[in-house]
Each structure stands twice: as structure tokens, then as C-alpha cells.
Specification:
The structure holds three protein chains of three kinds. Chain A has five helices and 13 strands. By secondary structure, chain A is of the alpha+beta class. The N and C termini of chain A lie close together (6 Å). By secondary structure, chain B is mainly alpha-helical. About 2% of the residues of chain B have low confidence. In chain C, the strands form six sheets. Chain C has a six-stranded mixed beta sheet with strand order 3-22-21-18-17-23. A four-stranded antiparallel beta sheet of chain C has the order 5-4-19-20. By secondary structure, chain C is an alpha+beta fold. In chain C, 34% of the residues lie in helices and 24% in strands. Chain C has 16 helices and 23 strands. The chains are: A alpha+beta, B mainly alpha, C alpha+beta. Chains A and C meet through strand 1, strand 3, strand 4 and strand 12 of A and helix 5 and strand 8 of C. Chain A: This is Transglutaminase family protein.
Chain lengths: 270, 311, 487
């Protein structure tokens, strides 16, 4: 499948900023079943960009802007070609072993409710169990059309009825770890979630869980299905904060207003 | 030198100067209110609040404008930025942040002044208040002496630049408020209360003796104004403060090679002030003149921050 | 007492004994108070955690120095060098190839499940591949030549300012001791540290700009930060003084930006860079890790070092040293039961009143049970905690720590001590500073030497020569014991 992605992130500041430093995880990478056919990152102001990788192997771009600056638009666009792989991730850049993805983080700390929710999944086959968990998370919540709540933990999300895609993925990750399954958060692009929930366009978040013998398998609790060829993977981490497309720091007063414009178009065939 | 260090030194200078000024103001007001033949009461304390721009904050406390509550408010009350204890607190915080740049003597001056207020919740009666502010003044004098004995380098100059700019602001405010209060009163010019009031101004800037030296004709408002604005012999006059700012910026420029808008602004101001006749200022409106001066002083403060990249 | 340089250990120790005998207690006490008064004036203070008023205290100082004989020190140094080299090799490996896991020496979950292992910096190579530039290794002694490592400190070990200030005080107050003893100087520490810093600057930087990074003057160790910056003649910066642009670190000065090449940081990993570690933190330098990953700045010590000095890792240090050095550890560990292992847990639960139990991630003497001096209630509460979360605890035997003479209220009395020497690693090798911080438990019988728990410090004399080669071993031992009573 061919996914054409056009993603604009605009920050507006209510008063000019003296300096802006951002860590961007906005560059997808080739895997066995995903090839990046042209990718551009453009910033609408005088910025210095430096490219690197973080500890999880994600491609990063450091963005440095000297102020005064009152808005910035980060525009990424390009095409990603994907193959059908039943959610199994082959040939990714994996600097860290699956075991690491058993650890909890402040955003993915479980409580008794999440643990017992995971325990109710009555499947002995590891893959079937993860499918069932994915479906259970999918069915438990309604998808929120609004913006994700910044900093919302899995525990907080679990107590809500209506949550964002990011929350669903984090609940899945948290629950899977309570079952002893290494799991991680994935950020990227997919039209799938929009189709299901008619949600606002936003970078998508889903999950991957590690199954011995298969490797990392992608699950999207938004759809209740495996994340398949309609997904362009960009970054993985222990939680949504670690895989965030933009982590930023600014020097200056005032508020920051975020505006996202995203188009993910698919065409079948290659 | 780190920008933060320079900024802390500058603010240290400003807060020490502010401490000293509030102490003198309280001292002069106590004298005016209690010790003069005709106690000035509420008006004296109201003007002290106005000079420190704490009238609104004090009103919120709901207390009466009289010696005990106002003296307490201006000395030991740490809840607002216009008190001695808060100014000292800020001075000490800045000093701590640059502790290694200061001599032991300079640091202990600040620290001892700060310790005077340790666990102190009231300045006491008139005499006790005078003793308290006298103790504070002694420590700030000690600090000043210690700064003068430090190496002649940026460290000293940033402290002194802060002091000069704060001093210009303080003197201008003092004159503005007192003049405002004094003139509309309808008291006969040269009356006794009036005399006491004008003496208060001189006391606050330590200029009682200097006045006698410079003016032979007795206490006249026009002379007091002339002294405080135009006579650079008096260290706390606008003319002296303005001149000192120019000199220190010059020294900094020589040592650091940094020369810019702050120097230009300070020099312009100095040239203008040296041509200024206090008599003209009075006829054209002292209040307006002083308000303009205070605004310009603020602009110089900002220019210093930009020139030495304080933030 | 004889000429310095030609003395034997017998002479040296007798000399200390004679000095103690001939100097009246009142005089010793006067000198001690004088030293403490100086410390207070200088502001050599620390803040006690858990006290609401954040009161500043000085650490009590004991006037009686502790003595290390030259050959004793030589053996100790060799052990320290071996251990620190192993720590560096371990960090290099664990954030890179992870050979030690592949070969099954350590259980992988010990690393990957450990919050001290920082995945965020995995794959980054620090300049010159040095991770633990400044290590403080805490040692205890139970017999003449029986030193044990109690704890490794490979993150930001503190206390070196005490080593230097204590020596200053001793030189001023007891100059006669330095006439009788040939004591190795410690005052070169700042120079050695600066040399170490410069040696690990990114390759190609001719005149590296070095700074000390402090959390600020509210930090309990601020005195040490400013002391070190001052004595090295380099800037003491706070996070707000640094800015990263284009993956390069700059400091903000009145004359504009100055490029920074080496940072001795005295702030925790969590607060280094809000873009990488703690997004909620307003502290830190955004972009610092990117500059570090790009090889444009050296951080001393490297981020992620916590995995090497974690108490859970500690119990594996003998295996780690052996794995990387190829030889047996010259400095042994204190025997340690890992409560995460069921058999060890069983053993520990059966013997709680005899053991010392520690939280794996605790420090400063907090979260610790000293069985022999604990109440029944304390023991029972630890028992419950152990059963609930065994992986969080380790246990050790209560050591028969050595004591040294210390000036107590009633005169000289034996008190328990430990010792923290400082080891510097630069691109030109590893060096042990001849001295260190002796911490002393001032309460009679107490084994807890932490300053936050009523411990004090004393100077540590490393003698430059003691003719030990000519001395029969037995005699040396008995002499050592005469100074350090083994209880």
C-alpha cells in the first residue's frame, strides 16, 4: 500500500519566544515491510537542524531556533510503501532487547484494575491472548474525537469512558506488561483510526507486543485489529512521551497554541 | 564573566541600595512623626508608603496609617517587596548565588544584616525602630566599604552599577512624593511643619549637613530640589547617580570591551542633566520631570540587561 | 620523634600515640572547635534531608587523623584501580555490545528491569570511552589487611571538599604532626581533576573550556561545587547559563556565548535534559544529550552510570571485576544476600536480628535496618517489607568494623569508621588520590557514619614511606591493629 503523508504542526506563542529547542521524531525508517520513498522535513523559519538517533533507535531531528519567534510550522511530507505483514514487524532497527520493554514508566504504571482487566483475558496461546486483549481494550472505551490530554497516565485513562488513541495504546501496553509480555508504544501515521471513528486527523499511536518466535507484533486498540499495511511506523518507546513526535522546550513567557493539520492518503498497489 | 553572575551582582547592588534607602526613609519618618515639635502623624507615614510604592499593599492589610503598623510593614514584613527584610532577602539570595565572587567581608556584611531580622516580628517602638534601622545602615555601610576594598574589576562595577541605578530611582521617587504632598497643603511656605518635612527629605538622603555647606540662606524648597537634582557633590543626588552610572559603564567598557546602548543612554542623560537648571524644572513641572526621569532610569536598567545579556 | 622519611611503621604509630598522649584533651578540643568554627564561617555546610527548615549544619570534625601506611595504601590503590577500570569497562559494555549478558555473567533482567539502566542513552559513546571519571569507593575494614568495598559511587560522589578542608585545618592546627609524619599531599586534587577534565575533552579541541554544573545554591552540596570550581579556576554554571545550539553547548557570558567542551556536572541524570529524561522538569539544559551524543561535549560523569553503582549490581561486582580484568578482585565485596533470590531471602528472614538490610535504591543511611541495634518493631516492619518486595532489598552481615581513636565527650575513645578514597579516570589513565574522606560514627558503638545521621569526618593521612618492605609482616599487622582496633 502507498501512504501519502502530509503533516503540519504549528505552534503559536502568545508572546515571542527567545529560543526554541525541539527534539523531533518525525522521520520513518525502512523495515522489511515498510519503505520510505521520499521524505521531507521543512521548517518555516530560520532553524538549525541536526540529525541523530535516540536510545530506542528512532531517527531524531534536533531543531534549534533563535528568537524572537512567535510561531513555527514544522511540515513533514512524503510517501511510505507498505506490505501486508499481519502486523509482524520485520527488520526494524532494534538496539534494545524485548526485555527492556517490560519496565513501567510514570505514564504506564499499572494499578489493580488494569492488572485484573488483563487477567480476565482467558487465552493460553500468546498471540491469541494479545488479540483478545487488544479487542477488550477496543471495546471498553469510546474513542474521543478531541485532542489527547497531555500527560494522561494509563491509570487515569482507564477510569475514563472516552479516551484518545494514545490512551488506548498506553492502556494496552500497560496491561500487556502486567501479563509479562514486553510491550511498547508506537507513534506514526495511519488512516485506519480516522475511518473507524471519524476522528480529527492527528498522528496516530498504537502498540507493539513481543511474542517469542514471532518478534514484535503491532496491535491497534483503536480498531481492535493488528496494525497492518495501512500504518506507517515512525518511533517506538516505553510510552507515548518517549515516542512523542515533538518534545520541545522554549524560553519565553506566554502560552503555546498547537495546531495540527494532517492528511494521510492511501492508494493500493505499489 | 557569566551573564547570570553579572546579573546577580547588579541586583545585589540594587537590593543593598534599596535596603539602605528604606532604612533611611523609616528613620526620617520616625523623626518627623515623633521627634519633631509638631508630629506629622498620618501624612508622614502615608508619604513613606507612597515613596516605596506600597500604599496599595498596605491598604489591603486594613491597618491604620500610623507609626507602629507602617514601620512594621516597611521593616519586618516579608509579605511584600517594599520592606527592608524582603530587600535584604533578595540581596542575600543574589549574594549567595555569587558567593565565590565576593570577599568574605562583603558577604558577611549582607549576612549579618540579614540575621538582624532573624525571627524578628516587630521593629518595636520609636526608639527601637531607630536602633533597628541604625543597625541595618551600619551593615550596609560595612558592605559598601567592603565593596570598595574589593578588586577593581567587573565584580565591583556591576554591584556599583546596580547601586547607582537604584539610587537614582530612589531619590527621584522621594522627591516626587514629598513635593507632591508638601505643595498642595496650603501651609505657609517656610512654616514649621513644612520645615520638618523638608528636613526629612534631607535626612533620607543624608544631606542635612551638606545642605548647610552648600546653601547659606536657610532651608528653602528650591534649594533642596536643586541639591537633590543638580548637585553632583551630593552622592545621592540625581546628578551624582547619573554621573556614576556613566563612569562605571566606562570602566566596564574598558575592561570587557562591551560598549553599547546603555553607555549611549547613560551619557546622553548625563549631558542633559548637567545642563539642567533646577529652577526651570520647578517652573515647568517637577512631577512631570521626575516621572520622566524615573521612566528613563528604567529604560537604562533594561538597556544594561540587554548590553550584558542578563537574560 | 625521628626524621621524616626514615621512620618505620612502629615509629609512625608510636608517634601518633605519643602525640595523642602529650597533647592534652583540652588542647585537642580547642583545636577541634577552632576547625569547626572555620568551617562554619566558610559555610562548609550541608542541608539535612527530611528536616523541614532545611537547616544548614556543618559536619562534625575530629582532630585525630586516621593513618594509612604506605604499603597498605599501595595494595589498596591497586584494588581501587582494578575496580574502577572494571566499572568503566562494564558501563562501556552494558550501553554497547552487552557482552557480559551474552556470556551469562549477569541475569539480563537485573539490567533491563533496573531503572538505573537508561535506555535513552543506549548507543552513545562518551568521548574517549570513559564513563566514570570521578569515583568514590566506600571501604570498610574488619582486620589489619581486610578492606572491603561497601559501596561504589560512580555518579556524582561528593565529599572531596571535606578531604581538602580537613587537611587544611590539620595543617593549620597541628603542624607538628606533619613534621613527624611524612604525609602524602592531597592538595593537588583540583589540578588532577582539571587535568582529568581536559584530557577527556572531545577530540580536536585544543584548549577545552571546562565548567562545573551545579543545581544552584540551594543544593546541599553547593559549597563543594563552588569550592571545586574556584580551586580549579573555572566557571560554576547553572543550567540556565548553558544553551545548546546546533548540537554545541555554549555558556552565556556578558561578552556573548562561549563554547563549552567539558562539563563536570553535579546534577542528577533526571535533570540534565528535559527533552530526554524528565519532560516535566523545568531544570536542565534542553539539547544537552543531543550535544553529548554528537560527541561535542564531555559529561563527567557520564549519564547512565547509576547502573554500575546500584546496590543490586553491587553484589555482582566480584564477577564483573573478574569478567573485565581477567583476574580475581583485589578488593573484596562485603558478603551480600540478594533478597530477590528465594534462598537468600529465606536465609535473611531467618537471621534479621543479625544482619544489615538495605534498600537497593536507598542512600545516605535511609531505608536501612541494622539488625543488632534495631527494635523488635523495626525488625518486624522490615520483615513485612522484605516479604512484600524482596527484589528491593539486599542484606549483609553486621561487620566487625575497625575503630580508630576519636575525641569523644569523655576523652579519646574508639569509634567506627569507613573511608571514601577518590579515583580519577582520564584519557591518560587511572589515579588514586593519596587520601580520602574518613567518616566516623560519633555515637559510641554506632555503625552509621552518614553525615545526615550524626556522623563526622576526620583527616586521612597516607604515609609516603614506612620501610614496610623491611618489616616482617606479622609486626606490621600488629602495629596496624594497635592503631585500628578490630571490635
Amino acid at each position: 500500500m502507498r501512504l501519502a503523508i502530509d503533516h503540519r504542526t504549528t505552534y503559536r506563542f502568545t508572546s515571542p519566544q527567545a529560543r526554541l529547542t525541539q527534539l523531533l521524531r518525525l522521520t520513518p525508517e525502512d523495515t522489511h515491510d515498510q519503505s520510505v520513498a521520499g521524505w521531507h522535513l521543512h521548517v518555516d523559519c530560520d532553524a538549525r537542524l541536526r540529525y541523530g538517533r535516540d536510545g530506542f533507535g528512532n531517527r531524531t531531528t534536533m531543531l534549534y531556533v533563535e528568537g524572537p519567534i512567535d510561531s513555527i510550522e514544522i511540515h513533514v511530507s512524503g510517501e511510505v510503501l507498505t506490505n501486508r505483514s499481519h502486523g509482524i514487524v520485520h527488520g526494524g532497527h532494534e538496539p534494545l532487547p524485548p526485555q527492556l520493554f517490560l519496565r513501567e514508566t510514570p505514564l504506564t504504571t499499572p494499578n489493580a484494575e488494569i492488572a485484573s482487566f488483563a487477567q480476565t483475558i482467558d487465552e493460553s496461546d500468546p498471540v491469541a491472548r494479545l488479540h483478545a486483549l487488544n479487542l477488550a481494550v477496543h471495546r471498553r472505551f469510546a474513542l474521543c474525537r478531541g485532542k489527547p490530554v497531555a500527560g494522561r497516565t494509563a491509570i487515569e485513562a482507564f477510569a475514563e469512558g472516552e479516551v484518545s488513541a494514545r490512551d488506548l495504546a498506553q492502556v494496552f501496553v500497560t496491561a500487556a506488561r502486567t501479563l509479562g509480555v514486553p510491550a511498547r508504544y508506537v507513534s506514526g501515521y495511519s488512516p485506519a483510526c480516522v475511518d473507524v471513528a471519524d476522528a480529527r486527523p492527528a498522528p496516530h499511536g498504537w502498540a507493539e507486543a513481543h511474542v517469542p518466535g514471532l518478534g514484535w507484533v503491532a496491535f491497534d486498540p483503536c480498531t481492535g485489529l493488528c496494525a497492518d499495511e495501512a500504518y506507517a511506523r515512525v518511533a517506538v518507546a516505553l510510552d507515548s512521551a518517549g515516542a512523542a513526535p515533538v518534545a520541545g522546550s522554549r524560553l519565553g513567557e506566554g502560552e503555546e497554541l498547537l495546531d495540527v493539520d494532517l492528511h494521510v492518503d492511501r492508494t493500493s498497489g505499489q | 564573566m557569566l551573564s547570570r553572575t553579572a546579573s546577580s551582582l547588579y541586583w545585589l547592588g540594587r537590593y543593598v541600595e534599596r535596603t539602605d534607602f528604606i532604612a533611611r526613609l523609616v528613620e526620617a519618618t520616625v523623626r518627623l512623626d515623633v521627634l519633631s515639635p509638631r508630629p506629622a502623624g498620618e501624612a508622614a507615614w502615608a508619604s513613606a508608603l507612597a515613596v516605596t510604592e506600597t500604599d496599595a499593599a498596605f491598604a489591603k492589610t486594613g491597618q491604620s496609617i500610623s507609626q507602629n503598623p507602617v514601620a512594621r510593614f516597611l521593616t519586618v514584613d516579608s509579605s511584600h517587596p517594599g520592606s527592608i527584610v524582603r530587600a535584604l532577602d533578595m540581596a542575600r539570595n543574589n549574594a549567595r548565588a555569587v558567593r565565590t565572587a565576593l570577599t568574605k567581608e562583603a558577604w558577611t556584611g549582607i549576612n549579618r544584616a540579614w540575621l538582624i531580622f532573624d525571627n524578628r516580628s516587630s521593629p518595636g517602638g520609636a526608639m527601637a525602630t531607630l536602633n533597628l534601622v541604625e543597625a541595618v545602615k551600619a551593615e550596609t555601610r560595612g558592605f559598601e566599604g567592603a565593596v570598595h576594598r574589593m578588586l577593581r574589576n567587573q565584580t565591583t562595577w556591576f554591584i556599583r552599577l546596580g547601586q547607582a541605578i537604584e539610587r537614582a530611582d530612589n531619590t527621584a521617587r522621594l522627591l516626587d512624593v514629598k513635593y507632591h504632598i508638601l505643595l498642595p497643603k496650603g501651609e505657609s511656605v517656610g512654616g514649621v511643619v513644612d520645615r520638618d518635612q523638608w528636613t526629612t527629605i534631607l535626612q533620607t538622603v543624608s544631606a542635612v549637613t551638606a545642605y548647610r555647606w552648600l546653601y547659606s540662606e536657610g532651608l528653602k524648597p528650591a534649594n533642596v530640589i536643586d541639591l537633590l537634582i543638580a548637585r553632583s557633590e551630593l552622592p545621592r543626588s540625581l546628578a551624582a547617580s547619573v554621573e556614576e552610572a556613566v563612569e562605571i559603564l566606562n570602566l566596564l567598557a574598558k575592561r570587557t570591551g562591551l560598549h553599547g546602548e546603555a553607555d549611549r543612554m547613560a551619557r546622553n542623560r548625563h549631558q542633559r542633566l548637567s545642563r539642567t537648571k533646577s529652577g526651570e524644572v520647578i517652573t515647568q513641572g517637577l512631577h512631570q520631570y521626575l516621572q520622566g526621569f524615573i521612566a528613563e532610569n528604567d529604560n537604562l536598567h533594561l538597556a544594561v540587561g540587554r548590553q550584558f545579556k542578563f537574560s | 620523634m625521628g626524621q621524616a622519611g626514615s621512620t618505620t611503621p612502629r615509629d609512625e604509630l608510636a608517634a601518633l600515640g605519643a602525640w595523642i598522649e602529650t597533647t592534652p584533651d583540652a588542647e585537642l578540643r580547642r583545636r577541634q572547635q577552632s576547625a569547626e568554627a572555620t568551617f562554619r564561617q566558610l559555610g562548609i555546610t550541608f542541608a539535612v534531608y527530611g528536616e523541614s527548615d532545611a537547616s544548614e549544619r556543618i559536619i562534625p570534625f575530629d582532630i585525630v587523623p586516621r593513618i594509612f601506611l604506605a604499603d597498605e595504601w599501595e595494595r589498596l590503590s591497586a584494588g581501587l584501580v582494578q575496580r574502577v577500570e572494571a566499572i568503566n569497562a562494564f558501563l562501556h559494555d552494558i550501553y554497547g555490545e552487552r557482552r557480559i549478558l551474552a556470556e551469562g555473567v549477569l541475569p539480563p533482567d537485573l539490567i533491563f528491569g533496573n531503572p538505573q539502566f537508561r535506555p535513552e542513552i543506549a548507543g552513545i559513546r562518551p568521548p574517549h570511552d570513559i564513563w566514570a571519571h570521578i569515583c568514590g569507593i566506600d571501604l570498610v575494614r574488619t582486620g589489619p589487611d581486610d578492606f572491603f568495598v561497601l559501596e561504589d559511587n560512580a555518579r556524582t560522589p561528593s565529599g572531596v571538599s571535606y578531604m581538602l578542608e580537613n587537611r587544611e585545618a590539620m595543617l593549620r592546627l597541628c603542624p607538628e604532626l606533619f613534621r613527624d609524619f611524612h604525609v602524602a599531599a592531597v592538595d593537588s586534587y583540583p589540578d588532577r581533576l582539571l587535568e582529568t577534565m581536559k584530557s577527556v575533552a572531545p577530540v580536536g579541541v585544543a584548549a577545552p573550556v571546562c565548567v562545573v554544573l551545579t543545581p544552584g545554591h540551594y543544593n546541599s552540596a553547593y559549597y563543594e561545587h563552588s569550592f571545586l570550581a574556584d580551586s580549579m579556576g573555572i566557571e560554576l554554571v547553572e543550567a540556565a547559563d548553558l544553551v545548546v545550539d546546533d548540537d554545541v553547548v555554549w555558556m552565556r557570558t556578558i561578552a556573548g556565548r562561549v563554547k563549552v567542551d567539558v562539563i563536570y556536572r553535579r546534577i542528577d541524570d533526571d535533570y540534565l535534559d528535559p527533552l530526554v529524561f524528565r519532560p516535566d522538569s523545568m531544570l536542565g539544559v534542553p539539547g544537552l544529550i543531543a550535544a553529548y551524543a554528537a560527541g561535542n561535549v564531555a559529561l563527567l560523569n557520564a549519564p547512565g552510570n547509576g547502573i554500575a553503582d546500584d546496590k543490586a549490581i553491587y553484589s555482582y561486582m566480584p564477577e564483573i571485576v573478574k569478567f573485565y580484568s581477567g583476574g580475581d578482585p583485589k578488593l573484596p565485596n562485603v558478603e551480600t544476600w540478594r533478597c530477590r533470590e528465594p534462598q537468600a531471602l529465606k536465609y535473611v528472614l531467618e537471621r534479621l536480628p543479625e544482619l544489615v538490610v538495605k534498600l537497593v535504591d536507598g542512600s545516605g543511611g535511609y531505608g536501612m535496618l541494622v539488625g543488632p541495634t534495631a527494635t523488635k518493631a523495626e525488625i518486624e516492619s522490615f520483615r513485612a517489607a522484605l516479604i512484600a518486595e524482596p527484589h528491593r532489598y539486599i542484606a549483609q552481615p553486621t561487620l566487625a568494623l575497625s575503630t580508630v581513636p576519636t575525641l569523644a565527650a569523655a576523652g579519646l575513645a574508639p569509634r567506627h569508621v569507613d573511608f571514601r578514597p577518590f579515583v580519577l579516570t582520564g584519557s591518560k589513565g587511572v589515579q588514586v588520590v593519596p587520601g580520602g574522606l574518613t567518616r566516623v560514627a560519633l555515637k559510641e558503638g554506632s555503625l552509621v557514619v552518614n553525615s545526615s545521621q550524626g556522623g563526622g569526618t576526620k583527616d586521612s593521612f597516607v604515609l609516603m614511606d614506612n620501610g614496610a618492605g623491611a618489616e616482617p609482616k606479622g609486626q606490621l599487622q600488629s602495629q596496624t591493629q594497635s592503631q585500628e582496633q578490630v571490635s
